[in-house]
Amino acid sequence: MANGELARIDEAVMTGLSAVGTAGPVQQIAILTATATALHNRYLDTDALPDLRQAISLERRAAALADAIPGSGAALLSTLADSLTSLYLRTEDEAVGRDAVDVQRQALAAATPGSELHTEISYELACTMFARFLRTRDADDFDSAIQAAEAGESGPCRGAR
Do 82 and 101 contact (CB within 8 A), yes or no? Predict the structure, then answer.
C-alpha cells in the first residue's frame, strides 16, 4: 500500500472516530463499521495488529447497537467474527478462537435459516473450527467443523494449511 493510501486511511479512521460520538445509533453503526473496515484493510496491508484489535473493538460497538437496525444483528456479528478469526489465525490465542466461534454461533442464530448469510456464516464457522482442530487436534473441534460444513457449503478455508 502506498503512503498516500495509508494517509487516506488514517484520515478516514480519525474522521470516523471523531464523528461517531455525535451521531445517532443508525449512523453510529455505519461509521463504526466503515472505520473498522478501513482498519481491517490496513491490517491486511501492513500486518499491524493494533489496527485489527481496534477494528474488533469498533465492530463490537457496532454489534451492540444492532437493535437500531432490525435484522442487522447477524451481519454485524458475522463481520466481528471474521475479524476475530483473523486475529485467531494470526496469534493462535485459543481464547480469541473460542470468542470467534461464540460470535459466529450468535451470528448463525440471528441469521435467517436457508439465507445466503446463514450459509456463509455456517461455512465460516466450519473453517474456524477446522483451523482450531489443526492447532489443537481436539476431536470436538473436528466434529463441530463437519456439522457446520454440512449446514454451509464447500470451499477452501483460511488458515487450514
Answer: no
How far apart CA 47 and CA 156 sit, in angstroms, is 22
Residue at grid coordinates 447497537: 65
Question: What is the architecture of the domain spanning 71-155?
Answer: Alpha Horseshoe (1.25)
pTM for this predicted structure: 0.84
Q: Going residue by residue through the chain (161 aa), what tens digit of pLDDT does each one get?
A: 566 677 777 777 777 777 777 888 899 999 999 999 999 999 998 999 999 999 999 999 999 999 888 889 999 999 999 999 999 999 999 999 999 999 999 999 999 988 899 899 988 888 888 888 888 887 777 777 787 777 665 444 555 54
Convert 106-143 to b/e letters by CB count within 10 Å (16 or more is b): bbbebbeeeeeebebbbbbbbbbbbbbbeeeeeeebbe
Cα–Cα distance for residue pair 157/161, rounded to 1 Å: 9
Answer whether 113's CB lies under 8 Å from 139's CB: no
How far apart are the C-alpha atoms of 90 and 154, rounded to whole Å? Answer: 23
